[in-house]
Amino acid sequence: MISVSNKAMSAYKGDCLAILLIQPENGDVPSLPQEYLAHLSLPWQAGDFKAEAGQSFLVYTPELNCQRLLFVGLGSEPDRDGIRQAGGTIAMASAKKKLTQLAIAWQEQSLTSSDIGECVVEGVRLGSYTFDKYKTSNDTPAVSLKKITLYPASGNGPCRKGAALAEVAARSANMARDMANEPGNKWTPEEFSVQGRSLGQNRLTCTVLTEREMSRLKMGGILGVNQGSSQPPRMVVLEYHCPKKNAETLLLVGKGLTFDAGGISLKPSAGMEDMKYDMCGGAAVMAAMAAVGEEAPKNVNVVGIVPAAENMPSSTAIKPGDIITTYGGKTVEVINTDAEGRLILADALAYGIEKFSPAGVIDLATLTGAVIVGLGHHRCGLLSNDDALTAKVEQAGEQSGELVWRLPLGKEYTKQLKSQVADLKNIGGKAAGTITAAAFLQEFVGDTPWVHLDIAGTAWGFTEKSYVPAKGPSGFGARLLIELIRTW
Q: Residues with Cβ < 8 Å from 342, sequence gap 6 or more?
C-alpha cells in the first residue's frame, strides 16, 4: 500500500523514515529540521556520510516518533534513475532490517514531485524483488514492505499519480522476472499460453495458435525451430482495443524460447543453464501487456505477440543446411540451428503486420551474443528502419532507465545473408552478427516502422544497480515498453 501524507514528516510513527538528501555544492551539512540535523551532523563531520549517490546511513532515534532514520544520498544533481537507485538502496536497507512499514521524505529539487514519487517507489518495489518459489529450507522467509508513506516537499497530487504509475510498472517488471526465473522444465511454451489467457480476463483478448494452426498458416520458422522438442510450440496473441476511433495500433513481439540448447548446432555446456532466459523478450512483452490491461490507454491499440518454442537436439530436430518456408512464403537456408530466434520472430512479425496493420512494431529478443561484445551489459542494441520511432523508443529508454544504443542497418549487411539455394541464410557470418540478425528480421517487416531491441546483454547480468537483482533476470524491456505506450 502506498499513501501520500499531508502531515509533517515529524509525525511519522512507523519503523523507519528515509530522507533523500542532495549533496550541497559547498560541502556543508544539508539543511534539515533540528531534530534530524542532530543525528546527521556528527557522521557528516566525521566523513561517514556526505550524501553521495548510493550512500546511506542508518541511526536509531528513540526520542523521535519513528524508530529509525535512514539518510540516503542523491549526489549533487540527481536524475530520474538516480532517484530510482536511491529507492533501491532504501529497499536493500529495509530488507536487511526486515521492515514492513516505511516512510520516505525529500527536499525541494529540480525534478518534479511526480518524477520523484514515481522513481523512488519504482526503485523500492523493484529493489525488494525476490524469487524463492522453489526453496524448501527453513530459513526465515523474506519480509516484504506492506506500507509505504511518502512525504513530498510539495505537490502531493502529482506525487500520488507518479507513485501509482510506479506501482504498475514495477509490478509488471517483477512479473517478467518471475517468468524468466522459472526453470525450463516448468516454464514451457504452454505456460506462455496459460499466462496469456489469465491476462485475457482484464480488458485484453487472448488468442493462442497451436501447432496445428501454425502448420495451416505455414509458419515454418517456429515449427522448424521446435521440431526437435517434445513440447508443442505456441503463439500467444494479446489484443487491447482503445475507445478512440481509428486509433493507431502498436505491435509488440517478444522472443519466447523457453529453452535454447542450440539444436543440432549444440551450445557449449558451460553456462547453458542460463538459456532458460532466452524467453525474456516474450516475458517483457507479456508483462507490458499486463500493464496495458490495467491502465487501459485511451488513444492507442496495442497487440502483443509471443512466439514460444524450445530449441532442442534430437533425431527430429532441424539440421544445418535444411530449408524452411516462413509465413508469407520466404524461404530460409538454415546454416546454424543456434540462430533460431530470428526464425520464430520472422513468422510472428510477418503474421502480426499482415493481420493488424500496425503504425509501429517493436520486437525484443535475446538474439545475439555479439551485442554483448559491442555494448556490454549496460545498453541494449537498437536497430530500426524508422528515425521517428527510434526517437520515441530512445526517449522511453531514458525515462525508464532501460537504455538503448542505435546500431546501423544497410544493404551491405543484408548482402551477407544471400543464399545460393534459398531467399535468405539465417546467419551472415561472424562479422557484424547483431546487425545481420536485425537485417534478417528487416526482410519480414516491409515498410512498416520497426524497431528491433537486442536485449541479450541486458536481460540478465544487467548493469549493477540497487534495484536490479545482482544475479538472474532484470525484467529489462517491460518498463521501457510501458513508458512508450503511455506517451504514444
A: 365, 367, 426, 437, 440, 441
Asked whether residue 63 falls in the same domain as residue 192, the answer is no
176, three cell numbers: 517478467
Cell numbers found for residue 467: 534495484
**Which pLDDT score is estimated for 27?**
83
CATH of the domain at 158: 3.40.220.10
Helix axes 433-442, 341-356, angle to 10 degrees: 30
Backbone φ, ψ for residue 114 (5° rounding): -65, -45
Give the C-alpha separation, 57 to 282, whole Å.
40
Catalytic-role residue among 50, 147, 160, 267: 267
pLDDT of residue 109: 86
* Catalytic residue selected from 84, 125, 234, 342: 342
**CA 48 remoteness from chain centre:** 35
pLDDT band at 140 (very low <50, low <70, confident <90, very high): low
Indicate whether this model's pTM tops 0.85.
Answer: yes
177 as an active site residue: the answer is no
Q: Does residue 23 sit in the same domain as residue 73?
A: yes
**What pLDDT, in 10s, does the model give residues 275-325?**
999 999 999 999 999 999 999 999 999 999 999 999 999 999 999 999 999
The DSSP symbol for 232 reads P
Single residue among 172, 198, 213 that ends a domain in this structure: 172
Q: Verify whether residue 486 is a known catalytic residue.
A: no
Q: Could you tell me where the beta strands, DSSP code E, fall in 277-408?
A: 300-311, 323-325, 331-333, 360-365, 380-384, 404-406
**Do residues 206 and 237 lie in contact, with contact meaning Cβ atoms separated by under 8 Å?**
yes
**How confident is the prediction for the chain on average, in pLDDT?**
96
pLDDT digit string, tens, across residues 26-42: 888 998 999 999 999 99
| 9 domain residue, yes or no | yes
| Among the ranges given (141-145, 174-178, 375-379, 422-426), the one the predictor scored with the smallest mean pLDDT | 141-145
Q: Which domain holds residue 164?
A: 2-172
Q: Give the tens place of pLDDT for each residue, 174-193.
A: 999 999 999 999 999 999 99
Q: Do 96 and 168 have their domain in common?
A: yes
| Residue 24, number of CB atoms within 10 A of its CB | 13
